[in-house]
Records
---
Amino acid sequence: MRIVGPIIAVCALAGIAWLGTGPLSLYTLFGVIIPYCAFAAFVVGFIIRILNWGRSAVPFRIPTTAGQEKSLPWIKQNKLDNPSSKAGVVGRMALEVLFFRSLFRNASTEKTEDGIAIGSAKWLWLFALIFHWSMLIIVLRHFRLFLDPIPAWITALEGLDGMFQIGLPVIYLTDLGIVAGITFLFIRRVVVPRIRYISQTIDYFPLVLLFGIALAGIIMRYFTKVDMSAVKELTLGLVRFTPQATVTEPIFYIHIFLVCCLLVYFPWSKLMHAGGIFLSPTRNMANNSRAVRHVNPWNYEVKKHTYEEYENENWEKMQALGLPLDYEHVKEEEPPAEAEAGAAEGAPEAANTEDSEG
Amino acid sequence: MKKTGIIAFVVIFCALALLPFAANAISPKAPLELDYNTPAIKSLEEHKCIESTEFMRSSHMQLLDSWRNDVVRNGDIVYTATDGTKYEKSLDDSCLTCHSNPEEFCDKCHSYEGVNPYCWDCHDSFGLWRQNESNEALYQDFLASVEGGQE
Amino acid sequence: MAKLPNRTEMLDFDFSLPPEGWMDTKTEFKDGMFCHAVKPEKLETVGMPNAHKWSASDEDWGLPENWKEIILQGMADRLEKYRSFKLFMDVCVRCGACADKCHFYMGTGDPKNMPVLRAELLRSVYKRYFTRAGRMFGSLVGARDLTEDVIKEWWYYFYQCTECRRCSAFCPYGIDQAEITIMGRELLNLLGLNTDWIAGPVENCYMRGNHVGLTPPAILDNVEFMMDDLETVTGHHFEPSFNRKGAEILLVCPSGDLFAEPGTFTFMGYIMLLEHLGLDYTLSTYASEGGNFGFFTSNEMAKRLNSKIYAEAERLGVKWILGGECGHMWRLMQQYMDTWNGPADFLEQPVSPITGTVFENAASTKMVHMVEFTADLIYNKKIKLDPSRNDDWVVTFHDSCNTARGMGILEEPRYIIKNVCNHFYEMPDETIREKTLCCGSGSGLNAGENMELRMRGGFPRAEAVRSVVDRFGVNMVANICAIDRAAMPALMDYWNPGVGIVGTHELVGNALVLDENDHRTMNLRQEELPSARKEKEIADAVAAVNGPENGEGGAA
């Protein structure tokens, strides 16, 4: 059900778009109203999530260090895997975001009869990279539909993407890439027992949805065809706030309806890893907390067992040992009073200690 | 990331998301208007291409691609349309006879949609080549030979 | 205590998975895999909430009536306080890159020991109560209700994580299971659900200054005993000072180094070195612990225990602090101490009095790692070393999780070891440096009653050691961590009998040439040195050649 469910769901969504634009001809709804709403939901949702994360404090400087730290001048620092400066952090983040540096470390562990075998495993990294880069280039390519005149960089990008000039219309490498990527990621979840075990419905759904989008796009471009000038009139109209849905092919509406679903789903799902990675405290902080003090915005005073108390409790022993003493000995019959403070109240400990502070 | 970083991130995200809107607001262009009517088309009794307008719009690229392969690779130069009419499989001699304004008819639309066909990579120089009379004669011989060969 | 399975029984598992999903698998508390429940007195002493008597094998854990409210409020607070927590709850895509990186998963095959699922144990509750999708769609989006069984599951599995951060090094978003375990344990501690093995040292450290509960006389006795041993070995008598005001440097060590072998040998190494250099340093009986089991309890408890170090440095009026070899201690010195209890503006930027090197990387915290200090000495040729004294040992180096992935001290110890040993070999690349495998006993799991868990968790590390035992004849694992020194001898005895554990400064102590008359016959363990053995062999051979007939009489 975890696997079939998402497939049914995406088929149903595609069915809705087909029903709405085939038999019912609700072109304005599917071509104008829903896209506007979905885009707004995406932008607003994305911002809310970022601000929401941003509202939480970063109390400590906790980079995961993955190389030699900055130390003595003659020891070579690994500036990208263990940065100590802002520039280093930018470099580390760039490697993470653009090339999935951490995933590149991936290895696979197998249990043998009497041991463990750790081997290289770069497939996940490779296909994840293919998928994400294809996705990015495809999104950028689509800007040709939203700009007139079309900037040269988009034309160049398209040329590059179709550089092998196979087929007509020319087959984009990224179309192959995204399908290969999604297929790999999906099959991996189904076939590798360990990954299947950890996978949930919400892990399959985005893959199926993206596959649906890519499939509809590919069908539209290479097989059933649409009236491109009508498409561009609509897309350009959308960004110029003068939309006119004159496209009539349902496949086009299936494509953009699934995209709209993705846009709405995106901010509230795990897909927000796209924004989240930039905020990850184990990656986006410099490992310099011994050189530069990091301030915790909610740092509060805590109850301590002071030297004075310690000396007093051990006074006789310390005197007998000839250890230097700072204070007059105060004899007490009971152990120090903090022992029972707040213990039975059941309140979070922070509250306890704040009460007993000073 | 500090508060300023968060704000900067959100601002950059908004800017990227709204870029297409902004770009169009800055340089709005008039909607695309095409002038199909060349003197040759005007002189036609029926304004009709070799196939239906819908088909030509969506599939002209595949038609031309198959024509090219037929002519160059197989020497097959005759196209029989759905209505039975025969045409020469030639961009220059069939299409451009009526659509004599490729800058208007082809390029405007292609550049509007961001399509970059590589037709003119050859056909520009081919047209120039044919302007020389002896070359044109050579070409006609070629056509005759493939037609003859077919029969 | 549960009987420890033998090697074959221990390895009789594979990575196969149960047919039913993890949410439907009830936690089975296996003897030998968890620690004793905390005794309430220990929590009461330090003022931790909801201290009560309970046991993990009980059906009823005696949770307070409003336990659910406490947990959910605790989560809400921490989601505000820690961006790491909130973000890591949200962004996991379950790609599974972390799944087989955890030493507990590798050693148990228990799917809930995959970091991704260990995180899901908490994430599922987060989704249910803190996200709209979870409230609306429940298990469809991986959410589940918070029940007492969930609390038990948390307790079982958050105390099967050593906060080693290995998963975090492989995660494409840097999700750190250590952070999630830390949050999980904080939440459990709101209900009084600590382990006795963690709460005991916390109480000791809070009241008596160190985890093992050494009183001032016990500390001084132990040190005197060690100094006597050092005199036997080196012929030199050393008298380190305690609580001495006006010293230049405060030396803070993990208390394990004062307490038991082989840590004590490491301590001897520190003292020999510092005394030999004539450094103006002192130790403290009050701040007699660098380690911090508070960190395995809650952030606040960790801060309370840690506060002694700066307080004592200020009271004694030292200029800077030198820290001994300890893993989690150093993660805290690097990433937490200054934030918790700083700024330490009563101290000065550390400068090595011997080489004049300014430790710029410690400009704010003012605390230098012993291996940084010693590496600098060796680089500047300020000490004379005789590595042949360690020639009986074929050494490999085990990076501690915390110094590797919470600091990045990788080269300094290697540099030292290469200078004080003649036989050094690295374990496989996938098992060292930032990919180092845990000893299996970190983060307060080095108890006795969970020995099976420790042996399982340490199995991948032991396997890596075995590979260099087989290839190079390694017989000694060097480290810079007190938990390693305390826990790994048992691990090696179990998996690789005959392989010993040594602190890096014990190796330094052995190799350190104190003066031209420093002709030792024993190492710090009072085992015969190879050179002494050779001399004896030569003497014997000479005697044999000379023979009985022309032995004594022959010379005449």
---
Amino acid sequence: MPLPLPAAILLSPALGAFVLCAIREDRDALIRRLAVTSMGISLACALAAVMTYNPVAGGYQHEVVIPWIRSLGINVHLGVDGISAVLVLLHAICAFTGVLISYAIKERVKEYYIFYLLLITGVFGVFLSLDLFFFYFFYEMAVIPMYPLIGIWGSDVKEQGVVRFSKEYAAMKLTVYLTLGAVVALTGILWLYASSGAKSFDLVALQRHLASAPLAPSLQQWIFPLLAVGFGVIAPMWPLHSWSPIGHAAAPSAVSMLHAGVLMKLGSYAIIRLAVGLLPAGAQMWLPWIAAIAVMNILYGGFVAMAQKDLKLIIGYSSSSHMGYVLLGIACLSPLALDGAVLLMFAHGLMTALAFALVGHVYDETHTRYLPDLGGLARQAPFIAGCGVIAALASSGLPGFGNFVAELLVFLGGWDRYPVQVICGTFGVVITAVYMLRFVRGTFFGELKPAFAHVRDAATPFARLPYVALIAVLLLIGCWPKPMLRLIDASARPLIERIAPSPMQEKYADVDSLDLQPLAPRETP
Amino acid sequence: MAWSLLSVELVVCAAILLMLAADLLVPAARRDSLWWLALGGIALAAVLLARQQPSGIGQTFQAMFLVDRFAVYFKGLFLLTAAVVIIMTREFHHHLPARVGAFYILLLTALLGMLVLASVNDLLLLFIGLEILTFSLYIMAAYLKTDARSVEAGMKYLILGSVSSGFLIYGIALLYGFCGSTSFPVIRAAIANGHAPLTAQAGLLLVLAGLGFKMAAVPFHLWVPDVYEGAPTPVVALLSVGSKMAGVVATLRLLYGVFMPLQGLWGPLLAVLSAATLLYGNLAAIPQTNIKRLLGYSSIGHAGYLLMGLSTASGSGVEAVGYYLLAYLFSNLTAFFVVVVAADAVGGDALDDYRGLSRRSGWLAAAMFIALLSLAGVPPLAGFVGKLLVLLATVESRRLWLVAIGAVNVAISLYYYLMVVKRMYLDAPRENSPIRVSPLTAGTLAFLVLGILAVGIFQEPFLQTIASALQP
């Protein structure tokens, strides 16, 4: 019997970590090859899962159910729907490129890859689990490896030679914040379990039970904020976002890639899947607040990013700004906006991974990330500079990249419900352009400092592979978003219709009727 | 009289007598090999325990002594704890010159006390069991006669322990005055209608105070930090796992077996104490600079979770406590085992001595890492499931404020556990010489770590065992 796809995706990095434990520490090449192989298998399986997902049938597919704790109704229930399939693919791409980028790690390689693969396993587990117990199980399992990964292989955030945040501080702040959020969410999960009467942690069974016997709205209004705020910490929801930029800044590049690219999406995914999916009345009550917070995310994160001088802090704050669009898209409760939010999670994940990868390269070569110290690197490293420009354009929402399609969908879908918030959100696009262009100009253009005369480009095809792969996917979904949107829509639309059968979405009743093709300009490759 | 019901205790008694004789006959230089005898006694006791009929209830000595599945389950845990502590002591031999034999004897008497406690069905037997256990620990805590901290530890433990014994015996006297018997069934019958006079209620509270001392629950926790810091490390392991478990077992017997009708009295009381214990233990652990003190405060925090499970007065709460104890046993014994092994190599028990431990012995650091994360409640480790079950039982009992406190304390405890991890993994070592670990120690550590993983991942078989053992 062939191994079901979700199980293969999940087990491959877990087994990789396990096997690595048994390998001698000095065999770096073998260790790296093993990590790349295990991630390659995961990526192939994730691609297969996305390709074979049938959007017409919808619902959860590729399901695996193994009863685990019968007395509590806990199953190992793996499977994907359109939303999680997209996110699994995102994680697989980011993790695979991350493993390649990790070739820059030279110290304590074995330990590094063990923790990195454990982190990857945890994140896959969250996206693949259709059981609340295992959802939390993998979520917390993904948080903890961040501590050693940042603490050992990270770097202090310096400004003019003075340490602003030590990596130990950043690692601890991140771990404690995320754990605090997790336990708040856990309280909500347990409360939900105890009051649903379904005696099951299985998401599908719980959904079915709640559809016939919904929780009292008075209860939902308490449980919803526990889940939304608890998981919102990792999203990162303003004002609980402060762990995230310094966490990104202190982490080694490959970890920042996963962290900003995928980990933050765990929060928004959990809000979609658990908070909104299971507690419709609570969602109706609280989502306007989330929309307001999302606007704060967009504007506040953007303005703070403008003031930063550390490259990673710029990208870090920009991530928390962009996640505001995702939260806004979720809060709109319209299929179109939710499609946009999920697509933005995917596009933003790739874009941020790209940005962190190239900032990591710049830092490895110049040993500084302080913007005033940098400049003129385009002459020495034209390939990296080109990637930097592309990342900046993608981030600013230029047509041709996935981010543009996704943000547009959020704005279109949200207009009817939150026009003010949408208008505020569009300002965020302008702010993004300001700091991203400032980042590109300050790093790659201008006069080349003599100290950087030795800086090398990513020269070999192998070193360029992660960048090329990320850009290719970004352009692909930017120019031809339809297949992925169909996939997302297959799950987002039923979700919204179950919660808010509202009449206002008739204008864009179907994503297929909204012809997205002309929106992508012809001149982009 | 059914002697077979006493077989486990009798074997341990026989082992104690044998070792007394052996301690006289074996030349001083070879006494450290006596651990074989102690371990053999425990192994034989374990075999006999496995043969005791797991179904039905047996009682003897006019129903003072009870053998049910509850007793069998916890006796199993006590035997496992004692066996690990004996192997741990083997690593500690060179600190106990010439008097090793007596140390093992005391270890076995402490075990005897715990075994008796698992079977109590009478207040007097409860008192006797507790005193056998505590007296052994008084002596063991002060075993390093030339070390002032050890003597201080023994002294503090003796004084505060005597006070708590005073509480206990006074409470027993009041309960006897109320119903004219110390037997559990008689007391249960006397309060079956849910009403008890003030004297009986006071008696119950005093008995709980005595047991709270064993569990290291606030406000009877004051002895913990100093005793943990000063006493020989294997003794601390026994204190923190065995003695705490014995306190919980006796409390379970008493509250769930006898005083269930008065749950309106003790439920809220334990809930409040649980919150205080959690907050005190975990917050006070943060500034600690000594690993044993830190684990001491953390063990106070764990007492808080145990009280939380006890306070639910529900079947799921009891199961959660049973699971929590199992997870705590594996995790805490692993942590103390590493402390024992590392202490000689790194030169002390200060947290800063652990700097760079992962570079000197990757496996030792990994074992500590896993043990600490399990104590903090991180999946996929044992402690996570224990905490989850306790929180779930508390949610079901509708005490959400307590759940909130319990949940927040997970994050607080993670902070100070990670501070230890920081030193082991992030900081540079003072010296780079690798640490040698004997095969027996490595094997035991591997067993404990695998236990942590197994209890954390394959919950169902353990849960079923516990559920069938703890059903009233």
